[in-house]
Design a protein that fits this description.
There is one protein chain. The chain is mainly α. It contains seven helices and two strands, in the order αααββαααα. The protein has helices at about 15-40, 50-80, 85-125, 165-190, 195-225, 235-265, 275-300; strands spanning about 150, 155. Strands 1-2 form a two-stranded antiparallel ribbon. Helix 5 runs antiparallel to helix 6 (about 235-265) and helix 6 packs antiparallel against helix 7. The longest helix is centred in the middle third of the chain and has 41 residues, at about 85-125. The termini are far apart.
Amino acid sequence: MTTHSSNHYFVPHGAIYPAVISAGLMSLAAGFIFSVATDTNKELAYLQAPGKWMMYIGAAIIILMTFKWLGAVVLESVTGQYHKWEDKSFRIGMIVFICSEIAFFAAFFGALFYMRIISVPDLAAFDPAFTPYKDFLGTWPSAGPGGIVLGTEYKPSQLNPMGAWGLPAINTALLLSSGATITWAHWGLLKDNRKQLVTGLFLTVALGTAFLICQAFEYHHAYTEMGLTLHSGAYGATFFMLTGFHGFHVTLGTIMLIVILLRSMKGHFSSKHHFGFEGVAWYWHFVDVVWLGLFIFVYWL
């Protein structure tokens, strides 16, 4: 690595990681296509085994190169290549990324609002003499005009929603607690208290993992005992899209927290130089806020 003045922006040397990752993505996509093609065309059955191996190889390349690439970035950080200009650009980039995530979830919350407040009542407001949805009640939660079959019972428009005060309330407590523990870890970092930093991060990872386990139990209960699936009309679709994407973000956030925890245990970060920690902390607080919106508008109201 080359040294540079703090008044100049650090530009790393060229790397092969983007090209190799692109090759891995191509292998993964081609393998998936070959595997899918064999499901509908028996003449292409000979492509099924190679397709699966191409998927495995492509995924392995992507994971390996991601580790190598991020490792190179970490090395640049710990060897003092980043100064105020790089730090500023990293913060701007993270802010823009979180804004894009806000827009992502806003679209799904908007869809929930539209169906719950506008479309479902409108479908039920048709003249009874002309409506094609004679048994449609138009109340929320709704399975839509088509209804659902729960066991041997047909329900034309209504279904039992997921209660707010069981696992969802426990998950809310877990995520709010995790927000407190990562803030406590940040305070420790600002004081160069390594023990407090590591302990706070470990507790945050544990709480995030507990949240994911509880959500897995909730999904199992919804599918096997409540008949609540992605096919359960408007409510089922919005419920699983919102909670599912949020769970995916919690999974990514937990993985990032584990990486930050391991780096902290190795002595990385200081009170003056720790954007890697802060970026993950911002993301985790964003995940907490989104869950509060989910708990209120999907589970509670």
